[in-house]
């Protein structure tokens, strides 16, 4: 587990609500996206979200030994998605999505974990790089440089060089986080 | 002969298919001859692919509120089991055993101290800290420390990293030398000092750099 997570967990165990809020902020998107990807409604995804964080709270003391908090949360949210989904008759196709109830496939879990890592990298980048890369790569459709430049207050001609510089920074952050060295891990590990 | 220099512009251009054929070939050749460039290219490709296929969703405000409440609602119940709670705390958090500021106050010194010392104990290590407080109130403070690892027999500590954290973010990092000595610099404030012993993590909460 990376050092930032260890510290947050230690501070949670010492009673810090702010540290807990930081964990919710850091892993919220990762956890919430899992039930939504399986077609659960917002209301049911909120139940999964809450259940996953209750499980996290109960496991804080033992989680130090776990290699990666992200993968633990993926497995937990996956299992809770199945449990919450099975309670409702509206998810008739749920079983087809769950060849293994206990955990998603390695491929899927790695892909979600990698997405989470890149999102964390973007968050660390901050402005002006993060909004530019989001506009260029995360928004649907082809990137319209004029519109992006207008929205972000940039010159159209500076988008290309800024994009390369920002991707360079993101690549360095992801290298520090361990991307490409046997799978994602956390910063400074 | 070294590989030709390749810029991030060119690597990005290669990933996005924006380079003219000649330049594309030159960059590919350079990548073939440099494991470092190849690793960079792979990370860039994976990052861009991730961004493009990102289907994640931000949680609703209600979901976030529910998850935050988990802590507020469950912690009092947890605290009732005081034995377990203290045991868990002891797994991480070191205890203050000495504060030179207290001693100075007892013998009548007031303020003006240029440095103060703190000592902490943990089942895995003892930690001595010294904080230098320069007269300039806004100047960065220097925190020097020494970690005395309480080793089990034949247990070697090969790597000892220390980190000063604020709100979950690292403000300063260092690796201790073979004697466990380290130095960190940060603006005045309150921090958590995290010491990674590989076999255990020691957290010293609320270290004041004043």
Describe this structure in words.
The complex is a heterodimer of chains A (189) and B (210). With 189 residues, chain A is an all-alpha fold. Chain A has two domains: 1-104, RNA polymerase sigma factor, region 2, helix turn helix motif (Rna Polymerase Sigma Factor, Chain: A), CATH 1.10.1740; 124-189, no CATH class. Chain A is 70% helix and 0% strand. Chain A is built from nine helices and no strands. Chain A starts with a helix and ends in a 12-residue tail after the last helix. In chain A, 43% of the residues are buried. Mean pLDDT of chain A is 86; it is low at 185-189. Chain B is an alpha+beta fold and 210 residues long. Chain B has three domains: 8-53, no CATH class; 61-90; 93-209, Immunoglobulin-like. Helix content of chain B is 37%, strand content 31%. Chain B has a five-stranded antiparallel beta sheet with strand order 1-2-3-4-7. Chain B has a four-stranded antiparallel beta sheet with strand order 6-5-8-9, with no helix packed on it. In chain B, strand 3 (125-132) and strand 4 (141-149) form a beta hairpin. The longest helix of chain B has 20 residues, at 61-80. The N and C termini of chain B lie far apart (54 Å). The interface between A and B is large, with 68 and 55 residues.
Task: Specify which chain pair forms the largest interface.
Answer: A-B, 68 and 55 residues
Strand order of the largest sheet of chain B: 1-2-3-4-7
Annotated CATH topology of the largest domain in chain B: Immunoglobulin-like
What is the highest CATH level, the class of the largest domain in chain B? Answer: Mainly Beta
* Number of separate helices of chain B: 6
